[in-house]
Amino acid sequence: MPLKRSRYPSCSVQQGTDLPSLSPRVKRELSATDARETQTMRECAMTVGHEKKGDSAQEAAVYRAAQMLLSARYVTALTGAGISVESGIPPFRGPGGLWTRYGEPPMDGYQRFLQDPKKAWQERLSPQGPSKEMWQTLSTAAPNPGHAAFVELEKMGILRCLITQNVDNLHRRAGSKNLIEIHGNYTLIRCIACHSRFPAAAVPRRSLPPHCPKCDGILKSDTVSFGEPIPPDVLERCFSETQQCDCMIVAGTSATVYPAASFPLAVREKGGTLLEVNLYESDITPLCTISLRGSSGQVLQQLVQAVKELRQ
Question: Does 9 fall in a domain?
Answer without folding.
Answer: no
